[in-house]
């Protein structure tokens, strides 16, 4: 008798568009559940993440009703996890346990049974997990067989579950079968049957179970799978095959398998996730080398398989080093978590619960990393994380009309950031990184206007440049990992990269021949040593002053910028640029760069307004680009979310503006994504005379 243990994981990230979730429900979640409900002999362990489950409970109670019936008759076992699908190892321990217990409570409320097992987000395993899982009242989880190979086991030893522990906290771990993940649902049913027969014929030396654990979106959401799985009947054929072979195939839930079978061994898994995650988390150049190495090893036949089991790329935490934006968002989450706990005694239970719920939503993993899926590259996911963090923070630290100013090493880089916070606005400055403004929050709306993403190189950009016109697909659906197609032509023209993370109040000195194209492409030359360099910090009488003395145009120059709040929603930045070595002629420019992202990105309800009007023909969307002179005021307006940012200058400046586009890989192929508006206010540098050059920016946020 060969066990078939079927575990499916359905997930939608916090902040995803409602129509996207609805489409996934109609094309996958509902038809899959209906289909399996008609096959009572087939068992299923099912994990719907908390955000998705709540969405379904509100929008489609018929799903909850059917699923509850299937749970009551023993056909389906509900699997638990972190409520909002966090990577457990990178959130505070108290939050880990609370998220898991909250979700177990919710599952019991809906279905009458508490879960026994946990789905581990992105299968990111760290060796301390057993202690957390036991403290949260659970006993097992599923990871990939890849995790076990890294621990020195062979594939033929993975026909059952193992035990492991941390500090004596014992749990059971299932190895999800890699072969099944690529067979189901992408290959013909006969190939699945042949694989199951190989297990029945003793291909496993330990256990006799085929354990499947993978994404439910493969059944209808991934490209081509809706037609293949449902319209062309793959799923019905799959269930038919199992039903016809119940004399030797025994369907089982994970929990039932535990109740009837002993563990096949004890092991300790290393810090890892699935193999592709090891590639994605590496820096672009290392990822390319890793891809080439894997392809080379794959060509070695049997000896290659022996070598491949010992190869591993990066770990999930590498994303926090690869993308500064992910690291900053993660450390902001930790900051808010500390504030929520610190103010616990000062808030009512209801208020505290609201703040904690927002914090936990912001811990949803998707926006913090990037692989084949959009993740970090999707502005609406980052926007939602910040919205939750800012609102949670405002609940426990509401602020006032007078700025609170404090400094701390928020992003864990051994350098302090300085925060200026009122009831309406939060500003986060990095003296170490050019005295720049790295986060600018409109607290009333829960919007981080600095939520831009830098144009980083990605290893898969090589695929875009070298892609073949003939993809050579076999019959059936195509795995998402094999997709090399584009959503629009000419995307290679947008493969432009930035040297540093994008921020605001970035100070530049440019040569005389500086052009708009230089700025857009990032190929410009700096004539000064100020951009992203260390600034000195002074806080006095509610004013933050950031200053640096260095070379510009070959002379000693000082740049000083002083930031002060004029009201709760308005701050002013006074610049003073002067020569330290006497008057001199400089044929070039001084520029101050801002980078903003409003929630609706470059949608039709977003626009610029300027004084004077810089484009009478109406080319004022955030996707527009160009250079205009004599600007004294610029507004960025998002009419849908009701947010406006206004920059007023005390004198005219030239304005260079361009959209920030990245090119990333998603489920549907390569795509261009708007990541923000880059604004450069430019002044002639022929001002190095006695007294120097002074200018001011007054920035206001408004709730429309």
Q: How are the elements arranged and paired?
A:
Blueprint: E1 2-10, H1 18-37, E2 44-48, H2 50-59, H3 61-72, E3 76-78, E4 80-81, H4 93-111, E5 117-119, H5 129-135, E6 140-144, H6 145-150, E7 162-166, E8 169-176, H7 178-183, H8 189-200, E9 209-215, H9 225-231, H10 234-244, E10 249-252, H11 254-260, E11 265-266, H12 275-280, H13 284-298, H14 302-308, H15 319-322, H16 324-342, H17 349-362, H18 379-396, E12 404-408, E13 417-421, E14 425-430, E15 436-442, E16 447-448, H19 461-466, E17 506-511, H20 516-521, E18 536-540, E19 543-552, E20 555-567, E21 570-579, E22 588-596, E23 606-611, E24 626-638, E25 643-666, E26 669-684, E27 693-703
Parallel strand pairs: 1-2, 1-9, 1-10, 2-3, 4-5, 5-6, 6-8, 7-11
Antiparallel strand pairs: 7-8, 12-13, 13-14, 14-15, 15-16, 17-22, 18-19, 19-20, 20-21, 21-27, 22-26, 23-24, 24-25, 25-26, 25-27
Helix pairs in contact: 1-3, 2-3, 8-10, 13-14, 16-17, 16-18, 17-18
SS content category = alpha/beta
Can you tell me the overall shape?
A: elongated
- Helix percent reads 25-40%
Low-confidence stretches: 468-482
> Taking Cα atoms only, what radius of gyration do you get, to the nearest Å?
28 Å
* Total number of domains: 3
SS field, number of helical segments = 20
Strand-residue fraction?
Answer: 25-35%
Average per-residue pLDDT, rounded, comes to: 94
Here the CATH topology of the largest domain equals 7-stranded beta/alpha barrel
Task: Write a short abstract of this structure.
This protein has three domains: 2-273, 7-stranded beta/alpha barrel; 317-448, no CATH class; 506-703, Beta-galactosidase, Chain A, domain 5.
């Amino acid at each position: 008798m060969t066990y078939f243990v079927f575990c499916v994981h359905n997930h939608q990230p916090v902040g995803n568009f409602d129509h996207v979730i609805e489409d996934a429900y109609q094309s996958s979640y509902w038809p899959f559940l209906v289909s399996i409900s008609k096959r009572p002999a087939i068992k299923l362990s099912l994990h719907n993440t908390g955000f998705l489950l709540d969405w379904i409970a509100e929008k489609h109670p018929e799903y909850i009703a059917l699923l509850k019936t299937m749970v009551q008759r023993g056909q389906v076992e509900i699997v638990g996890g972190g409520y909002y699908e966090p990577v457990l190892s990178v959130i505070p321990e108290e939050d880990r346990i609370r998220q898991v217990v909250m979700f177990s409570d919710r599952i019991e409320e809906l279905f009458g049974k508490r879960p026994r097992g946990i789905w581990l987000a992105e299968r990111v395993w760290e060796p301390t997990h057993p202690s957390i899982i036991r403290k949260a009242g659970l006993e097992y989880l599923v990871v990939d067989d890849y995790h076990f190979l890294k621990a020195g086991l062979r594939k033929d030893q993975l026909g059952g579950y193992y035990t492991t522990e941390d500090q004596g906290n014992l749990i059971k771990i299932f190895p999800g079968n890699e072969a099944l993940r690529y067979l189901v649902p992408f290959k013909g049913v006969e190939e699945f049957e042949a694989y199951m027969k190989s297990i029945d014929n003793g291909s496993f030396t330990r256990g006799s179970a085929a354990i499947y654990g993978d994404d439910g979106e493969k059944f209808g959401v991934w490209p081509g799978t809706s037609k293949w799985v449902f319209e062309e009947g793959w799923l019905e054929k799959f269930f038919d095959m199992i039903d016809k072979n119940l004399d030797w195939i025994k369907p089982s839930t994970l929990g039932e398998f535990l109740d009837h079978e002993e563990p096949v061994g004890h092991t300790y898994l290393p810090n890892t996730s699935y193999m592709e995650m090891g590639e994605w988390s590496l820096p672009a150049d290392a990822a390319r080398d890793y891809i080439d190495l894997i392809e080379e090893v794959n060509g070695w036949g049997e000896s290659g398989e022996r070598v491949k089991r010992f190869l591993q790329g990066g770990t999930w935490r590498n994303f926090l080093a690869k993308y500064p934006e992910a690291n900053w968002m993660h450390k902001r989450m930790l900051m808010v978590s500390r504030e929520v706990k610190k103010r616990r005694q000062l808030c009512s239970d209801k208020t505290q619960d609201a703040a904690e719920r927002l914090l936990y939503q912001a811990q949803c993993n998707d926006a913090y990393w990037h692989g084949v899926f959009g993740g970090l590259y999707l502005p609406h996911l980052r926007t939602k994380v910040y919205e939750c963090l800012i609102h949670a923070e405002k609940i426990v630290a509401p602020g006032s009309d007078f700025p609170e100013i404090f400094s701390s090493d928020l992003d864990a880089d051994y350098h302090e950031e300085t925060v200026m916070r009122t009831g309406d606005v939060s500003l986060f400055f990095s003296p170490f990184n050019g005295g720049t403004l790295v986060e600018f929050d409109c607290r009333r709306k829960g919007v981080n206007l600095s939520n831009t993403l830098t144009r980083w190189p990605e290893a898969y950009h090589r695929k875009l440049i070298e892609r073949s016109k003939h993809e050579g697909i076999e019959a059936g659906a195509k795995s998402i990992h094999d997709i090399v197609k584009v959503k629009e032509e000419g995307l290679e023209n947008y493969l432009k990269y930035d040297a540093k993370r994008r921020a605001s109040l970035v100070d530049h000195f440019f040569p005389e021949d500086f052009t708009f194209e230089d700025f857009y492409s990032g190929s410009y030359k700096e004539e000064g040593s100020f951009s992203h360099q260390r600034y000195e910090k002074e806080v006095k009488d509610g004013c933050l002053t950031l200053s640096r003395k260095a070379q510009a145009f070959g002379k000693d120059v000082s740049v000083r910028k002083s930031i002060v709040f004029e009201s709760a929603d308005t701050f002013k930045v006074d610049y003073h640029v002067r020569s330290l070595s006497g008057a001199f002629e400089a044929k070039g420019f001084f520029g101050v760069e801002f980078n903003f992202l409003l929630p609706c990105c470059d949608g039709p309800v977003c626009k610029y307004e300027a004084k004077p009007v810089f484009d009478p023909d109406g080319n004022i969307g955030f996707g527009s680009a160009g250079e205009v002179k004599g600007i004294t005021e610029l507004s960025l307006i998002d009419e849908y979310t009701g947010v406006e940012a206004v920059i007023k200058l005390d004198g005219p400046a030239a304005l260079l503006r361009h959209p920030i586009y990245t090119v990333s890989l998603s489920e549907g192929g390569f795509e261009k994504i708007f990541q923000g508006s880059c604004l450069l206010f430019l002044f002639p540098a022929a001002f190095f005379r006695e007294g120097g050059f002074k200018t001011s920016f007054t920035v206001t946020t408004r709730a429309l």
